[in-house]
Design goal:
single chain, alpha+beta, six-stranded antiparallel barrel, 4 helices
Length: 171
């Protein structure tokens, strides 16, 4: 009880500034297909199963959510094997940890590609419901394909390399 006085939570603004100092250059985009929470030993880890939309992903990189929060890549797996890098269109599982926050499965499910496709399909089916079934089906698929690319840009996670600090002494 006495030690609670000395534990102070950092203000959110301060955490955001510290997180921004960690980021280097943008390396690409990652799309989330599924989110899992697995128990490893005595703790749970968060796993994002997805694909690289463009660029590459490496261990220790950061994933920036569309809402600005950050995740750090702890491990990358492909076909049940640990790898150091993932490249474009490669299906991978990424074990992540929140930077300045503790993410849960529910926090990241809204960024899944399949949820976006379902939403786009529902909207298009409603729009074309008055048409004959076969024609409506073709128009729905075309509209989903056309809108999916721009929606992927909105929900995909940006990949940032960690900021490199120079080893040169300051004069």
């Amino acid at each position: 009880m006495v030690f609670k006085i000395f534990r102070r939570k950092k203000p959110e603004k301060e955490e955001e500034v510290e997180a921004a100092k960690l980021l280097g250059e943008v390396k690409g985009k990652f799309t989330v297909e599924e989110v899992f929470q697995l128990k490893l030993g005595f703790h749970y880890v968060l796993v994002l199963a997805g694909r690289m939309l463009r660029g590459e992903l490496a261990v220790d990189d950061f994933l920036k959510l569309p809402d600005g929060r950050l995740l750090k890549v702890e491990r990358i797996e492909r076909k049940n094997r640990k790898v150091e890098r993932a490249v474009v269109n490669e299906p991978v599982g990424v074990i992540v940890k929140g930077v300045g926050w503790k993410p849960g499965r529910k926090d990241l499910e809204k960024y899944r590609v399949f949820e976006t496709i379902k939403k786009l399909r529902r909207e298009a089916e409603k729009k074309y419901s008055h048409m004959p079934k076969e024609l409506a089906k073709k128009l729905v698929e075309k509209e989903v394909r056309d809108k999916l690319r721009e929606e992927l840009e909105k929900i995909s996670l940006e990949i940032y390399a960690p900021k490199q600090y120079s080893s040169q002494p300051i004069a």
